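Hi R.,

Here's the chain you asked about this morning:
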Amino acid sequence: MTTARKRFDLSVPEEDPFFYIDSDTLSILDKINIISQRHPLNVLVAGRQGCGKSSIVRQYAAVHQKPMATFQVGILSEPGQLFGEYTLENGETRYKQFLFPQALQTPNCVIHLEEINRPENPKALNMLFSILSDDREVWMDELGLLKVADGVVFFATLNEGDEFVGTELLDPALRDRFYVLFMDYLPNAVEREVLLQKTGIGDEKADEVINAINLLRGHAEYGLEISTRITLMIGEMVAAGATLKEAIVTSLQTSKDTLESILLSLQLDSGYRQKGKSAYLRYTRDGLQA
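And here is the predicted structure, written out as tokens:
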């Protein structure tokens, strides 16, 4: 049995020029960067769906010019799956090393464990315990002793709650290894500025979108989480020429009954049910160029 050690390109992500966070979070991230210069550390980013958990990890790496690697924990079904797998090539069994061992041995690397509480099998996280502990090393017969390099920061993101299918409560012994950073939606003024900068929408339309989002967030009976991501989706649709009604209909993932209630509350219901009056056109390349 041989081991195939492929080298992967680890790059610094591009910085978002319109990324906003509050001063408290900025201060915490600064302290995280300082501590990382002394030893590797772990940060758990928790918060509502679509509030920027993944984005803040990417922005941290970009701001501090650190290489970054992201790993989808949701695909893991057995221990060691992050590290590599056995393959059969030309009748020979080989161990194929994945990106994770290289990333954790790359100085100053930012490692994003996305949705850490969503593995197919909770036991798949067992090999992370030693990597995330004070020892910062793990032995694998196939790869030898793997030690976490200086300056590495592990960011884990998660959504917790009954509404998230496939999630598990994070093992307390694992959670205890992390600093915790809580994220929430942006304040209205900041969210409006992000909307203006990222979608190209005008001031008046931006106010309409923000007012609609505030109304939706204020109606708990709808059971909707209107994230900044959805706000930007609505803004992009409006900036492209859609009406606010069209933008909301296409951006919110909810039932028809709930959507009708939302449109009524926003006084946007006119014509929503009149599907039969719409003209049907051919969706072809020639039709788009006409």
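One quick note: The CA atoms of residues 48 and 184 lie 6 Å apart.

Cheers,
M.
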